[in-house]
């Protein structure tokens, strides 16, 4: 998702209490940011943050961090947070390539990837968020028995993501190629913005839950 540049979005982000400024300085100290020792989960590439905020509203005992690369998109999430004002949500504007600079070993309890950009050209494979290069980064910041959940309607990207597991040292705990018709995996499912759009066009949604 890349929205047209919105004038002033960088200024709004800089002043928003929902966005953690100089977030690298919080590495290893995210509990202080939230003021409690609840588990911390993150969505990487949250877009406008609809999934993350719904999840946070349902789980007040868990802290959530939404990571988004583009200011124009993050601005939309901030606007929604101004209405919802959830105490257990914060945002970081960053490229997830640098994620290990922002979190200490084992600091995250769970990571969500939803409808990540496919980067279809082979030479861009390492930019895909479920690639082995990113799995290596997640390995450094996710706690030992943590889980990563990935949803997409893009079958090529999903097949690629499954093939990346073994070389990266991860294992699948659960896999479906049609989430909305998988009673067990769909239980409690929160639709993301893209999920709603693509499933309404008839695309089946793939999902895995992985661990290492
Ligand atoms: N997760 C949302 C959903 O399912 O509705 C948005 C999906 S959208 C296709 C992918 C989002 O990931 C975009 O907002 C994009 O800017 C963000 N993104 C892609 N690569 C990223 C990266 N390396 N770091 C942070 N955000 C990224």
Structural description of this entry:
With 212 residues, this protein is α/β, with parallel strands linked by helices. The chain has two domains: 1-25 and 35-104, Vaccinia Virus protein VP39 (Rossmann fold, 3-Layer(aba) Sandwich); 105-212, 3-Layer(aba) Sandwich (Rossmann fold). It is built from eight helices and seven strands; from the N terminus they run ααβαβαββαβαβααβ. It has helices at residues 9-15, 30-34, 50-58, 71-84, 132-141, 155-168, 183-186, 193-200, and strands at residues 40-44, 63-68, 89-93, 108-114, 142-152, 171-176, 206-211. It has a seven-stranded mixed sheet, sandwiched between helices. Helix 4 links the parallel strand 2 (63-68) and strand 3. Helix 1 packs across helix 4 (71-84). S-adenosylmethionine binds at residues 1, 44-47, 67-70, 73, 95-97, 114-117, 192-195.
What does the radius of gyration come to?
16 Å
Overall pLDDT metric: 96
Main sheet? 7 strands, mixed
Coarse morphology: globular
Please mark out the parts with pLDDT under 50 across 5 or more consecutive residues, or reply none.
none
- Kindly, what is the distance between the CA atoms of the first and last residues, rounded to a whole number of angstroms? 30 Å
Strand content: 15-25%
The CATH homologous superfamily of the largest domain is called: Vaccinia Virus protein VP39
> What bound compounds does this protein have?
S-adenosylmethionine
Largest sheet: spatial strand order? 3-2-1-4-5-7-6
The CATH architecture of the largest domain can be given as 3-Layer(aba) Sandwich
């Amino acid at each position: 998702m890349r929205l047209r540049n919105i004038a002033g979005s960088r200024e709004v982000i800089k002043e928003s209490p929902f966005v953690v400024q100089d977030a690298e300085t919080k590495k290893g100290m995210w509990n202080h940011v939230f003021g409690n020792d609840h588990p911390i989960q993150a969505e990487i590439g949250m877009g406008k943050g609809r999934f993350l905020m719904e999840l946070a509203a349902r789980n007040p005992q868990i802290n959530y961090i939404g990571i988004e690369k583009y200011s124009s998109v993050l601005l939309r999430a901030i606007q929604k947070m101004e209405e919802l004002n959830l105490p257990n949500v914060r945002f970081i504007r960053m490229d997830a390539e640098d994620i290990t600079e922002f979190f200490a070993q084992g600091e995250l309890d769970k990571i969500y990837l939803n409808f990540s950009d496919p980067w279809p050209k082979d030479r861009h494979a390492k930019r895909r968020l479920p690639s082995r290069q990113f799995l290596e980064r997640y390995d450094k910041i996710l706690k030992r028995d943590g889980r990563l959940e990935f949803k997409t309607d893009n079958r090529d990207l999903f097949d690629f993501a499954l093939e990346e597991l073994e070389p990266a040292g991860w294992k699948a705990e659960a896999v479906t190629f049609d989430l909305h018709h998988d009673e067990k995996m769909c239980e409690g499912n929160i639709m993301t913005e893209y999920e709603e759009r693509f499933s309404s066009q008839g695309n089946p949604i793939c999902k895995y839950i992985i661990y290492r």
